[in-house]
Amino acid sequence: MTAIEGRARVFGDNVNTDYIITSRRKRESLDPAYLRRYLFEEIDAGFAATVAPGDWIVASANFGCGSAMEVAVTAVVGAGVRAVLARSFSRTYYRNAVNNGLLPVVCDTRRISEGDRLRLEGGAVYNRTTGETLPAGELPAIMREIVSAGGLVAYLRAHGDFDCDIL
Q: Is 162 contained in some domain?
């Protein structure tokens, strides 16, 4: 995976899937372009109007907890967010992120502030605003390939199937 850069958009602990996108919105539409307009509306009503393609979500612990609704990733991807950095993720959100081409990065996010310019390269997050380097967990190779392909469906279209030897 090549290095990527983005602007930090910071949230706290225990951001659940209903905070990311309320479940009532998925009854209205599953279109990512529609859902992006309501991203984080329950905790920051103005967020959707300020998020820009290439921004990163930066959170504390337990990001994506709550229900297993995949639409919580769909809305983030629909907003053009490329990565989510958190001290920890709910297991389901983490897998849904990979399966939908959103990069989940585990790292210590406590010293990242709103608007910081970040660069992810290899196993580190470089805060270009502060000059600090933060170690980051790396995805296994197959998961990096899935994210790079744009998600699991795109990966399977390109490769036809999983090679059981790499799992």
A: no
Distance CA 17, CA 143 (A): 22
* Contact between residue 100 and residue 54 where contact means Cβ atoms under 8 Å apart: no
- Cβ neighbours of residue 7 under 8 Å, at least 6 residues apart? 52, 54, 55, 56, 115, 116, 117, 118
CA proximity to 108, closest of 87, 79, 93: 87
Task: Give CA–CA dist 102/63, Å, rounded.
Answer: 14
Q: Residue 72 belongs to a domain with what CATH number?
A: 3.20.19.10
Tokens representing residue 67 in the block: 């229900």
Residue 103 is assigned to a structural domain of this protein: yes
User: Could you read off the pLDDT of 51-60 as tens digits, one per residue?
Assistant: 999 999 999 9
State pLDDT tens for residues 7-34.
999 999 999 999 999 988 888 988 999 9
Q: Which domain holds residue 61?
A: 4-137
